[in-house]
């Protein structure tokens, strides 16, 4: 098995909704296992023990098994970042989040370092960054229009 990095997101009771949302953005195959599927006592039977979304080239996982920290999720969240050279694919992900109500923190547009970059925060407070390498074919930012 080769090494890979997977995004694993903790939700306090919203894993099914969030993971279904992510599938609507990324496509792919979503598997959801509940606590009752594994006979876990003292947990909400329909709570998500483990969810896994396998999309082309990456995986997003999540669970309901973690309580929200007292200071809120914002203090403990990590940004999930797409680094790519596939403009149309990544633009589709970015647009999918925006169309479904994600808050735009940075529009997807050409940056001073030459790449296209944008950032959104989804309804569960997860920040998603999109950085697309800009080869010479995207002169003047035409690809982002």
TrEMBL record:
Top-level taxon of the source organism: Bacteria
Organism: Microbacterium galbum
Annotated protein name in UniProt: VOC family protein
Gene3D superfamilies attached to this UniProt entry: 2,3-Dihydroxybiphenyl 1,2-Dioxygenase, domain 1 (3.10.180.10)
Domain Glyoxalase/fosfomycin resistance/dioxygenase intervals: 12-130
